[in-house]
Amino acid sequence: MKKNFGELIWSSFLEIQGVLIGFIGILITIILSRLPVKTQIPLDLVIAIALFMLLLVVTLIKASYQSFKTAQELSQLQKSVIPKILYVSKEPSSQAPFQLRCLLGNSALFSNDTCISFYYTDDEGFERLIGMGVVLTVQDNGKVQALLDIPLLGYQEILEKLGNNDLKIIGQTIVKSNITRKMMLDYLFNLE
């Protein structure tokens, strides 16, 4: 992936054989300048400018296409990394009123026994941490079974709706494979 616009333009220029086309344009200009041409604007200058403009247009088209393709690939990669929640079931628990077992879509980020966090995106667009859990297993078909076993206070209503498979809440809840050190330390020190 190119780091900046200049690198993208330069690589596109090289890929369309810009050096070769530029050399041919200069060669044609030199040859035509030796021939007698009787016009107001020298034909060799017109050809050189036309070749330069053609080179510029083709380079920009190639760079735009490459940029568009890269953006699409990044979008697809991002969609495949963070899995969607497919189904949620309530599991009885001795420590909490219930735990949530979630079936997630495929994701390359998750593996067995990975710590994960659950976020709810509110109506204003802010992601709120609603709980933490663990990946139970990655099934043969790639789907992920996860357990939300550490619900955070203040989000009981959202967790209830999530446990009841409320489609709106499921659509606004995402699972990430990140647990910060602060979250883990807070949890560990609150156990005692």
Write the layout of secondary structure elements.
Layout: H1 5-15, H2 18-34, H3 43-81, E1 85-91, E2 99-104, E3 115-121, E4 127-138, E5 144-151, H4 156-163, H5 167-171, E6 173-176, H6 181-191
Antiparallel strand pairs: 1-2, 2-5, 3-4, 3-6, 4-5
Helix pairs in contact: 1-3, 2-3
Keywords: Membrane, Transmembrane, Transmembrane helix
Low-confidence stretches: none
Helical/strand content category: alpha+beta
Side-by-side strand order of the widest sheet: 1-2-5-4-3-6
As for the number of domains, it is 2
| Proportion of strand residues | 15-25%
Radius of gyration: 29 Å
Query: What is the number of E strands?
Result: 6
Mean pLDDT: 80
Q: Let me know the largest β-sheet.
A: 6 strands, antiparallel
Shape descriptor reads: rod-shaped
Keywords: Membrane, Transmembrane, Transmembrane helix
Transmembrane segments: 12-33, 45-65
Summarize the structure.
The protein has helices at residues 5-15, 18-34, 43-81, 156-163, 167-171, 181-191; strands at residues 85-91, 99-104, 115-121, 127-138, 144-151, 173-176. The chain is α+β, with helices and mostly antiparallel strands.
Folded structure, characterized:
A six-stranded antiparallel beta sheet has the order 1-2-5-4-3-6. Helix 2 packs antiparallel against helix 3. The chain has two domains: 5-80; 83-191. The relative contact order is 0.11. It has helices at residues 5-15, 18-34, 43-81, 156-163, 167-171, 181-191; strands at residues 85-91, 99-104, 115-121, 127-138, 144-151, 173-176. With 192 residues, the protein is α+β, with helices and mostly antiparallel strands. Strand 1 and strand 2 (99-104) form a beta hairpin. The chain crosses the membrane at residues 12-33, 45-65. Keywords: Membrane, Transmembrane, Transmembrane helix.
